[in-house]
Design brief:
Elements: H1 2-5, H2 9-25, H3 32-35, H4 41-46, H5 56-61, E1 68-73, E2 76-81, E3 87-93, H6 106-120, E4 128-132, H7 144-155, E5 163-169, E6 172-176, E7 186-190, H8 195-198, E8 201-202, H9 203-212, E9 219-225, E10 237-242, E11 247-252, H10 253-269, H11 273-285, E12 288-290, H12 294-303, E13 321-323, E14 331-336, E15 346-349, E16 352-355, H13 356-367, H14 373-386, E17 394-397
Parallel strand pairs: 3-4, 3-5, 5-9, 9-14
Antiparallel strand pairs: 1-2, 6-7, 7-8, 10-11, 10-17, 12-13, 14-17, 15-16
Helix pairs in contact: 2-10, 10-11, 13-14
């Protein structure tokens, strides 16, 4: 039934309108016409089916003067970066010397990745910040405060055409979500060297620091070689490798939200108010980021003092949530070393301690620097699989990307 319910744009448009009315009757104020602009009645009336294959290369060739270019993807205009402007990079590698869970390859990952992007992608040490726990200068230790300040430095002054790069290699974790914006109930984290005193850095915080304030036409490329890193930046589009078919499949938060709202609409029709509210909340979790109140922020900081398991908190009410764009202003990519439910390997390859994801990423790009985004993801997965690693890398983006074009940075 629900396959038919969501089969056509017109049917989805009608479902969105029905759920909108039901949510308003239940006291939940959210404009689903803005969340699903392609399903708005006026949009349906004037809609034209976009061509299946967009002329990305022509769009890229026309952008030289502004540093950004407009690319149409599935009927949406997307501002992408030329990556020909300023280049800045931030590298964080933590081995946790003398601590429980000490790692071996994270500082090597930073050295290898930084050297690689310096040599081939136009980045430079002069416009980079490197934080590692073997550095004797306290300013360049990967503490929580230093990482946050470095993230602020990375995005400061970014304009259209710029290319920013962030690489993290270290421990990652997951803690119970206290704000209701995670559909799986967990926030992903990175773990600074002083986490026992200062706490973790949550995905919500990283989104605020690295993504939210970036203007159109700026590229932010990130690599998280850490556990539970699949959606470390909470971006709306996720691409995963289908192990059986050997192809890349897209997971679109908007479509998942649409399914949840469809169930909510049916529940309302059947008089099941509680079920409708539950499904509506699930749908909203794919689309909303709550505005954290000071008390909620304090709860999350207390929660991060227990890295092994975290503490459950109180979810924010639906009324307190604010809508976040279903795509980002900037051109943001996040490569995760594994799915949110997996761990990333600290390995020993070729006589060197290294993170498996960082190693595979360099290996694939070294063989073909004109590789497409989709093949970069597929071949990175293949390198990991051939090496006996079960982790499945993921790519998340702020916009619905055309992955069949060459990777740039």
């Amino acid at each position: 039934m629900f396959g038919k319910l969501l089969k056509s744009a017109k049917e989805v448009s009608a479902t969105v309108q029905t759920v909108q009315q039901g949510l308003q009757q239940a006291g939940i104020n959210v404009d689903l016409g803005n969340v699903f602009p392609q399903y708005h009645p006026e949009a349906q009336h004037n809609a034209q089916v976009p061509p299946e294959v967009q002329n990305y290369q022509q769009d890229l060739a026309n952008q030289q003067r502004s540093g950004q270019f407009q690319h149409t993807r599935d009927g949406e205009n997307i501002s992408l970066s030329s990556c020909l402007g300023k280049k800045k990079a931030l590298f964080v590698g933590i081995n946790y010397f003398g601590q429980q869970g000490e790692l071996r390859g994270c500082i090597n990952d930073v050295k290898n990745i930084s050297n690689f992007v310096f040599q081939y992608y136009g980045f430079s040490q002069q416009n980079s910040v490197i934080l590692t726990d073997d550095n004797q200068n306290p300013k360049y230790k990967p503490t929580k405060a230093n990482i946050i300040e470095a993230m602020k430095w990375l995005v400061q002054g970014a304009t259209a055409g710029d290319s920013l790069f962030f690489h993290y290699s270290g421990h990652g974790g997951s803690v119970k979500d206290t704000t209701g914006d995670e559909h799986d109930g967990f926030d992903e984290t990175i773990i600074p060297i002083d986490y026992q005193q200062a706490g973790f850095i949550l995905d919500d915080e990283m989104y605020e620091l690295l993504v939210k304030g970036l203007p159109q036409g700026v590229r932010m490329t990130t690599i998280f070689d850490s556990c539970h890193s699949g959606t470390a930046l909470d971006l709306p589009f996720t691409y995963k490798v289908d192990g059986e078919k050997g192809e890349v499949r897209m997971f679109d938060n908007r479509l998942e939200a649409g399914k949840a709202f469809a169930f909510a609409g049916l529940a309302l029709f059947q008089g099941n108010t509680a079920g409708a509210l539950a499904k509506a909340k699930e749908g909203l979790s794919f689309l909303m980021k709550p505005q954290q109140q000071p008390q909620q922020q304090q709860q999350q900081q207390q929660q991060t003092q227990q890295p092994a398991q975290g503490q459950a908190g109180t979810s924010g009410s639906l009324q307190s949530q604010s809508q976040t764009p279903v795509r980002t202003n900037a051109d943001v990519l996040q490569w995760g070393g594994c799915m949110d439910s997996q761990t990333s390997a600290d390995a020993h390859i070729g006589g060197q301690a290294t993170g498996a994801m960082s190693y595979a990423f360099i290996k694939v790009l070294s063989a073909n620097r004109n590789i497409t985004y989709s093949n970069l993801l597929l071949e990175t997965r293949q390198v990991l699989k051939t090496g006996g690693f079960t982790q499945v890398p993921q790519l998340s983006t702020g916009n619905n990307m055309n992955l069949d074009v060459p990777f740039i940075m």
